[in-house]
Amino acid sequence: MAKSLALIASKGTLDWAYPPFILASTAAALDYEVQIFFTFYGLALLKKDLSDLRVSPLGNPAMPMPVPMPNLLQMLPGMENMATMMMKQKIADKGVASIEDLRTACLESSVKLIACQMTVDLFDFKPSDFIEGIEFGGAATFFQFAGESDVNLFI
Amino acid sequence: MEFDKEVDASGLNCPLPILRCKKGLSDMASGQTLKVISTDPGSVKDFNAFCVQTGHQLLQLDVDENSFVFYIKKRPD
User: Fold this and answer.
1) Which of A23, A63, B45, B62 could form a disulfide with B69 if both were Cys (CB 3.0 to 4.6 A apart)?
2) Residue extents of the structural domains in chain A
């Protein structure tokens, strides 16, 4: 029987968008059955428009910067946009997939994407904010699959 | 080495070479051979792991200074 992978995606920044989609698409390529449950800020990864995803150097001391930069400067307006632009450039230069491409790969390989209904309501998101082909559900929905899964990860 | 289809994943990084390989295999018949070209050094370990887990057979790996070329035989249905 095929193995299965259950992921919780709880973060909505450009850098943290990668782990769930990389693991899910790869597991699907390895014939795993895969579900990702998107909750809280992870819901940002299901939006139609992913261009809003940002990476913040602030409070992120491990992020490699061309020149060392104190937090006091990183908080200035425009710094986050600059860091995001630099990160996107690096992603393209190194042949790393875009988040859109990885998400499409997930959808094409039948990875099930579930939006947490409670957080959708909490943040006043509309179903039309999200891409087609996703489902909505709660914690019990997650456990129905996760309880039977070989691998469970919280990201 | 003879092959039935080629996928060029040059310049792509993890996990794209594996995803392209999987896609390439999807419309091939059992027993046919897929050639995959990759420039990602991590793909050597990953393609081994891919084949061990999926049952496809890694027939040959050619390494030169710029690339890794995998020949993968599709598993029986």
Assistant:
1) B62
2) 4-53+99-154
The domains of chain B are located at: 5-73
Q: What ipTM was predicted for this assembly?
A: 0.86
Pick A147 or A70 by higher pLDDT: A147
Determine whether the interchain pair B18/A29 forms a contact, defined as Cβ–Cβ distance below 8 Å.
yes
Among residues A47, A53, A43, the alpha carbon closest in space to that of A115 is found at A43
- A41-52 tens-digit pLDDT: 999 999 999 999
Q: Is B21 annotated as catalytic?
A: no
Distance in angstroms (rounded) separating the CA atoms of residues A155 and A64: 21
Disruptive mutation site among B12, B18, B19, B43 for chain A (greatest number of A CBs within 10 Å): B19
d(CA A86, CA B2): 43
Q: Give the mean pLDDT of A34-44.
A: 97
Cβ neighbours of A25 in B, within 8 Å: 15, 19
CB pairs under 8 A between A and B: 32
Does A104 contact chain B (CB < 8 Å)?
Answer: no
pLDDT, chain A, mean: 94
Whole-angstrom Cα distance, residue A66 to residue A121?
Answer: 40
User: Which residue in the set B13, B40, B54 is minimally distant from A30, CB to CB?
Assistant: B54
- Please report the pLDDT score of residue A66 as a whole number: 81
Out of B11, B13, B14, B75, which one is annotated catalytic? Answer: B14
The CATH number of the structural domain formed by B5-73 is 3.30.110.40
Question: Do residues B55 and B30 lie in contact, with contact meaning Cβ atoms separated by under 8 Å?
Answer: no
